[in-house]
């Protein structure tokens, strides 16, 4: 087997595991047809396994390696994961998710509404932080009260170790307080100099003078050297 064939085989094997068996281990959430965001897959795969690019994916498609791509979405042909009903009695009391900083105020006020994909909830805060950084850079981590989530009629699903919901009501969300934007204090304007009174003038302090450097060359003769010269001339 050549190096190229070995590299392709390695990529296919790992992609089949990540996208076909345990996407939850990488915080990846598919749509209802099993497709994932190519951008999210590349970031997670490159961070956790090995660097991968769009060119690598195109090469796999040309080789007929069991990879399907539609627009900006990707999936493998052999899918073994499934969405399962959640056992509410075994849910952690607090779950975690992430949002962008710009969305933070709106989410606290209105909650998270239903979107194209389901929203992942993590039982581990550090894992939520890690996935959030891969997705959006600097995430805001929110705490989700699972009891209030259920009371508001939300029915979570399970994808491996991930909890998935279509929306999150604001009553179930706790997040860091929104920091007010502090304006930088402006410098006070300079006070104008008082006008001179008729028949008088103000003494202005002259600017400090720089110390003068000694002239270059031989130092001037001191009194001892002058005496020596006088004795030689006698």
Strand arrangement, major sheet: 4-8-9-6
Q: Report the β-strand fraction as a percent range.
A: 15-25%
Sheet with most strands:
4 strands, antiparallel
The CATH topology of the largest domain is: ADP-ribosylation fold
Instruction: Count structural domains.
Output: 2
Work out the helicity level: 25-40%
Number of distinct helices: 7
Write down the Rg: 36 Å
Q: List how many beta strands DSSP finds.
A: 10
H-E string: HEHHEEEEHEHEHEEEH
User: Which spans have pLDDT < 50 for at least 5 consecutive residues?
Assistant: 180-184, 199-203
- Net shape: flat
Q: Output the CATH class name of the largest domain.
A: Alpha Beta
Please tell me the overall pLDDT. 84
Summary of the model, kept short:
This protein has 234 residues and is α+β, with helices and mostly antiparallel strands. It is 32% helix and 15% strand.
Description:
- With 234 residues, the protein is an alpha+beta fold.
- The chain folds into two domains: 3-76, Arc Repressor Mutant, subunit A; 84-174, ADP-ribosylation fold, CATH 3.20.170.
- It is 32% helix and 15% strand.
- It has helices at residues 3-20, 38-48, 54-62, 104-110, 125-136, 146-151, 223-233, and strands spanning 36-37, 67-70, 73-76, 84-85, 94-99, 119-121, 140-145, 157-159, 162-165, 173-174.
- The protein has a four-stranded antiparallel β-sheet with strand order 4-8-9-6, with no helix packed on it. A three-stranded antiparallel β-sheet has the order 1-3-2.
